[in-house]
Write a structure and sequence with these properties.
mainly alpha, two-stranded antiparallel ribbon, about 0% strand, 11 helices, 2 domains, single chain
């Protein structure tokens, strides 16, 4: 209840934030409309004018986001040659920046010159392969909206995976948690199959011990929620403690429904990250 008293204070901050979110949403809508207009204005697919437009250089080059849509359209049409041709355009456009990135990240690792050259080729190849998979996956729509942002994320993922596979990075030791895993508590309610085939049912007759175990579950989650940033914590409390809908929460805080959903998603992601050591500990 103490946290709910802070809601009125946070509302004023949320009003200012909602204006910023609205401006950001407006820019996103304009960007989507602009990219869609460029794509719709392309000549007929497969025509000479179409390929001339896609392969243009200088000031007339198409946004990479539009080229992603062209790749996916070629795949939808079953045109393998067309798909490869668009891929060539994309990889030519991104070659220099990808090569510069690969050189830069490998310089952060202590390597011999010949070793760095070998790893550079492999890392660059891994990035190209992951880019192809991402561009061919029509469910990854954000590539059609912000290519460079997606590419930056893909690079970090590829580098981390590559260095781990090469044995350059080792998995950091997991932090042991004092929290009792929920799966372990659930297992206490199920009988155990012995090697001889007999079934042995575990009975906990000490009710005080059982209550103590459950108390850990019941107190830990609220503690984690209270540690969230104020703007995320408020959304969680209003929805899960007050039982309000997303629309009602948006009205209380003076923000959009979409902002409520985004903050709820961010809050759940933080909680999931904090509970991750439990899952890792359980399956070691």
């Amino acid at each position: 209840m103490l946290c709910l008293e802070k809601v009125s204070v946070i509302v004023k901050q949320e009003l200012a934030q909602s204006v910023e979110d609205h401006d950001r949403d407006s820019e996103l809508v304009k960007r989507r409309a602009s990219l869609a207009a460029i794509y719709d204005a392309l000549p007929a697919y497969g025509s000479t004018a179409y390929w001339k437009t896609l392969e243009a250089r200088g000031d007339t080059i198409l946004p990479l986001e539009v080229l992603v849509r062209c790749v996916r359209h070629a795949i939808k049409c079953g045109d393998d040659l067309g798909r490869k041709r668009v891929f060539e355009v994309i990889f030519c456009r991104t070659y220099n920046s990808n090569e510069y990135w690969a050189n830069s990240v490998l310089k952060t690792v202590n390597l011999q010159a010949d070793e760095q050259y070998t790893l550079l080729s492999d890392l660059f190849a891994d990035l190209c392969e992951c880019m192809m998979r991402a561009l061919m996956d029509s469910s990854r729509l954000f590539w059609e909206e912000n290519f460079q942002h997606c590419l930056s994320f893909e690079r970090r993922h590829v580098f981390r995976t590559f260095m781990t596979r090469e044995g350059r990075w080792t998995k950091q030791p997991l932090k042991k948690t004092a929290r009792i895993p929920r799966a372990l508590l659930d297992s206490l309610d199920h009988p155990v199959q012995q090697l001889e085939g007999d079934v042995h049912e575990i009975r906990i007759e000490d009710e005080m011990a059982q209550k103590a175990l459950l108390a850990v579950e019941h107190s830990d989650l609220p503690r984690l929620i209270l540690s969230l940033p104020d703007k995320l914590k408020t959304v969680v409390l209003l929805i899960f403690w007050e039982g309000k809908t997303e629309k009602d929460t948006a009205l209380v805080l003076g923000i959009t429904d979409r902002t409520v959903r985004n903050r709820l998603r961010d809050a759940l992601e933080i909680l999931r990250h904090k509970l991750e050591p439990e899952r890792e500990w359980l399956y070691e």
